[in-house]
Backbone:
């Protein structure tokens, strides 16, 4: 069980998970900065409608170097689980469990994306299903939540295929592509 443990222990507990098409879901590593910058640069236009506006610095390895360090620190404290989807040495997606809350809630937020060349091949659903297993079995969480833009039907299909159910609409929930946009909210109860 992961509850505020050191990064070395997280590496042992979160072992790489095989996904379809010989892909792998694994914990982000300190040396992933260049691979992350490359993945985001390759998918810059593809992801732009679904993400916050990104400064040019975001697409440089130095930005990801700092960010990965922060993410691994948060993971070591039990507040998040930053994962990457890989094809060999190449990063082809991200999956994050963030805002892990203990106490009465025992929940986390799920976010993910898949490289445009791998989209529509079941990779997102397989990665989300693997994250559900980690959240239930290793993090001992009760609930995962996720939100999608109301018009992001592909992401909604991934969530529904992974057993999430819609729970409502959050008006002007996040600032995406430079505008406050409505999101459809989903949840998956893990102990049913």
Residues:
């Amino acid at each position: 069980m992961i509850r505020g443990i050191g990064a070395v222990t997280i590496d042992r507990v979160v072992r790489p998970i095989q996904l379809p098409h010989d892909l792998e879901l694994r914990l982000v590593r300190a040396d992933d900065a260049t691979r992350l910058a490359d993945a985001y640069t390759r998918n810059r236009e593809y992801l732009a409608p679904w993400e916050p506006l990104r400064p040019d610095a975001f697409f440089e390895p130095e930005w990801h170097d700092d960010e990965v360090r922060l993410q691994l620190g948060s993971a070591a404290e039990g507040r998040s689980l930053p994962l990457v989807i890989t094809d060999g040495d190449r990063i082809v997606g991200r999956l994050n469990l963030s805002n892990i809350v203990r106490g009465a809630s025992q929940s986390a937020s799920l976010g993910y994306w898949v490289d445009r060349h791998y989209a529509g091949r079941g990779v997102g659903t397989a990665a989300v299903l693997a994250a559900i297993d980690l959240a239930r079995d290793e993090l001992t969480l009760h609930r995962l939540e996720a939100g999608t833009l109301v018009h992001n039907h592909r992401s909604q299909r991934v969530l529904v295929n992974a057993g999430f159910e819609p729970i409502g609409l959050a008006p002007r929930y996040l600032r995406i592509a430079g505008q406050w946009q409505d999101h459809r909210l989903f949840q998956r109860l893990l102990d049913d």
Q: What stands out?
A: Confidence is low (pLDDT under 50) at residues 1-8. Residues 7-145 form a domain with the Aminopeptidase fold (CATH 3.40.630.30). The radius of gyration is 16 Å.
